[in-house]
Input
Amino acid sequence: MSIWSNLGLVYALLGAAVAVFLAGAGSAIGVGIAGQAAAGVVTEDPSKFAKVLIMQLLPGTQGIYGLLVGFITLSKVGLLGGGAAALEPQTGLLILAACMPIGIVGLISGKYQGMTSAASIGIVAKKPDQFGKAMLFPAMVETYAILALLISILAVNAVQI
Output
């Protein structure tokens, strides 16, 4: 079997990979940015560890969202729990396109949520009683990752195989 006879499946797998790799990279970047800020705060005041850890973990959700879309895609094409479906190239391209929103938005929002979390960690460093308000800033960035997750899930499930 050549790659050309399975081009539809190749496109679908590329879609799953885009969702997982890009959103995961965004999370890794964001968690790293926030972690640098968190480490500085904990160095000065170890009692703030739990609060800054929560802030650092927030950008990690994009990677989870990308992984979820990747699993849904693999399940859709039959690679989880059975034989893979024979896909037309057009169908594979539709699945690839359906995976793009969470991949691209996950990459971008993960990075910027990390930056926003780092700024919010600065708030917690100076005013720990403002933790609830500080959480709102990175949560606003999360909104767009959730919207991208939703559209990717709906789009992948809408593709007829």
In short: The radius of gyration is 19 Å. The domain at 3-158 is CATH 1.20.120.610 (Four Helix Bundle (Hemerythrin (Met), subunit A)).
